[in-house]
Write a structure and sequence with these properties.
Length: about 300
């Protein structure tokens, strides 16, 4: 059975949530998350998850369901997405996949990279090294062993750094090489891929405004409460943009003004990596923010051709 889905991608802060809600209303759709950070339940504001009011406007799936200490990998998460997509198709709803994690989208549409199983002892040793030496030290090693993948992730992303190093050591090939290999698809999905693109220079003021809105909305308090529930600085949920910066403020007494500046700088760098990733996608139809009517026309054409 072929399942038809919409995919709405783009860098952080480009307005994907607004567009997704419009498309869901217009085409009897349901929004499905494929962002690697919006799965965590204790930091919905910091990870820019749709608000309760937005989620009440139409069905939403796979947002805020994981505890902060639980890691999420592309393969297992994509399997969850496939289950949700299949159920929605049976209900007659159009699945609208929304997010900024390009690897997850690639894995869903092209299949999981055929990476062999890694010796658990290799994994355990690298995780111990990351815990004792710090993620930044291991990130320097990753820059040497797999500079292509290192350029796509944050130096504080302990989970992805450890995974990339264990794959390199366990297989002799960098993770970026494996990602370029043909994957095994477990589900026949045909997708219309829509992207929202903003020039990085124009995106920066939007990111600055959003970070200040998060702070005004209680981001510091949210981080304090999340850390109280999971008092581990390098917990999987806390490696994404915003959390390391806020933990620096809470645990190291970094002034909030400095925290905000670093948060913006790191978010801009993350957005640049996302833009670079999605630029490689030759199947994406690009739109400026707020051009929902143009998106509607493209979706109508796609549905007419099915």
């Amino acid at each position: 059975m072929t399942v038809h889905v919409l995919c709405l991608a783009g860098a952080t802060g480009t307005g994907k949530t607004e567009a997704a809600l419009h498309l869901a209303r217009r085409f009897n759709g349901a929004v499905v998350n494929f962002d690697s950070r919006q799965v965590y339940r204790d930091i919905p504001l910091i990870t820019a998850q749709p608000s309760p009011e937005e989620q009440a406007a139409c069905p939403h799936h796979l947002y805020g369901f994981l505890a902060s200490h639980i890691p999420v990998r592309a393969g297992s998460f994509v399997e969850m997405v496939q289950g949700v997509v299949s159920d929605l198709a049976e209900e007659g709803r159009l699945p609208i996949l929304v997010g900024g994690t390009g690897l997850y989208l690639q894995t869903l549409l092209e299949g999981l990279a055929p990476i062999p199983l890694i010796d658990p002892q290799v994994r355990e040793r690298i995780e111990e090294e990351c815990a004792s030496l710090g993620s930044c030290v291991l990130y320097q090693r990753l820059l040497r062993d797999d500079p292509v993948y290192a350029a796509k992730i944050h130096p504080h992303d302990r989970q992805r750094i450890s995974r990339a190093l264990e794959v390199f050591e366990g297989t002799g090939r960098p993770l970026s090489w494996w990602h370029d290999q043909p994957g095994e698809k477990k589900m026949d999905i045909q997708a219309l891929q829509l992207g929202i693109r903003v020039d990085l220079h124009d995106l920066e003021p939007r990111l600055n405004q959003r970070i200040h809105a998060m702070l005004a909305g209680g981001a510091v308090e949210e981080m304090r409460a999340a850390y109280a529930l999971c008092p581990h600085r390098m917990a999987p949920a806390f490696t994404g943009i915003g959390c390391p910066e806020l933990l620096g403020h809470l645990l190291d007494q970094v002034p909030l003004e400095e925290t905000t500046a670093v948060w913006l700088r790191n978010t801009r760098a993350y957005a640049k990596r996302q833009i670079t990733w999605f630029k490689r996608n030759k199947h994406m139809y690009w739109f400026p923010p707020g051009t929902c009517e143009e998106m509607d026309m493209r979706v109508e054409e796609w549905r007419h051709d099915l």
